[in-house]
Design a protein that fits this description.
Length: about 300
């Protein structure tokens, strides 16, 4: 529930002598005051972005002021925040690879980062850096033996009640990836079925919001999911030593193709499964061409959906 900036003039309605014109004028005055307050907040927010404030400062500002913003302004705030956190993540990544910070993290968190154990770090600079990163709503995720900052979209879902369905759906999409990343250490970190579901959900978002200001990020995510889904990863192969597609990915293709046969990706996977069946799931030249064709067709479908939405 959004906080009320100015008292609602509901008491006017109990006086029989008040005309609809007077009520309308008073309501207009309330809207004007609300808009002025919202404009002021947006100006302050933009100033924080422009002077490259720390993410934790921006998060605090949003928490204090989100109640007072219109849905349109709340959307603008969130889109700017997504971009800003992505940019500032590079700043933190550079700091995490300086002055033996990674070595310290390795000693305290040999497998996985836990915020509750930051106090065990004796180095004040590193301890402060980690708290700043966490308060800026990043997660520290271990990839290839080192820790990297990843935007915690799962946390940012708390702003869902303030924004449009487009931003809310984006938060759900990215929150799912943030809660459990698709891959780690060149291996699949989720099941093949989960990867297929994420692929469909991302395509659905792009179809639903073809003109979204976030379509670039979603398209990159979609293509990353698709590439892993049909080619696998170095440490999660899609085929065995005899070049036969393994049961798990194959069964997932069948399941997603059947469950989502009315979607573009479901239809393409159905055609791919038919080709796999003809080759007894053995990867040959036809399968290679089919995979490449599937990937190119998926990109073409996305491009066409964007054009139709314009």
């Amino acid at each position: 529930m959004k906080k009320v900036i100015v008292p609602i003039l509901a008491t006017v309605m109990i006086f029989t002598g008040c005309s609809s014109t007077e009520t309308s004028m008073e309501e207009s005055a309330v809207v004007e005051v609300v808009n002025m307050e919202s404009d002021k907040i947006m100006a302050q927010y933009n100033h924080l972005i422009e002077k490259e404030s720390k993410p934790e400062e921006i998060i605090l500002f949003i928490d204090d002021n989100m109640d007072y913003l219109s849905e349109e302004n709340a959307d603008e705030v969130m889109i700017d925040l997504f971009n800003y956190l992505s940019h500032y993540g590079d700043v933190y990544m550079e700091k995490l690879f300086k002055d033996k910070t990674q070595e310290t993290l390795e000693n305290i968190f040999p497998n996985e980062f836990h915020e509750s154990e930051i106090h065990h770090i004796s180095n004040r600079r590193i301890r402060g850096l980690l708290r700043e990163i966490v308060n800026g709503r990043y997660k520290l995720v271990r990839f290839e033996g080192s820790y990297y900052p990843v935007v915690d979209y799962d946390y940012l879902k708390k702003y869902g009640p303030y924004v449009s369905d487009e931003i809310k759906d984006y938060l759900k999409l990215m929150g799912r990836e943030s809660a459990k990343v698709m891959s780690k250490d060149s291996a699949l970190n989720i099941s093949w079925d989960e990867l297929g579901e994420r692929l469909v959900q991302t395509e659905t978002y792009l179809e639903k919001y073809p003109n979204s200001l976030l379509k670039k990020q979603c398209t990159s995510l979609y293509l990353a999911y698709l590439q892993v889904y049909i080619w696998g990863l170095e440490n999660t192969r899609i085929d065995n030593d005899q070049s036969i597609i393994l049961e798990d990915p194959y069964n997932s293709y069948e399941k997603i193709a059947t469950k989502y046969q009315d979607t573009s990706i479901g239809d393409m996977l159905g055609q791919y499964v038919n080709i796999l069946n003809k080759s007894n799931r053995i990867i040959n030249e036809d399968i290679e061409k089919s995979r490449e064709g599937l990937y190119k067709n998926a990109m073409s479908v996305l491009d066409e959906e964007v054009k139709n939405g314009q």
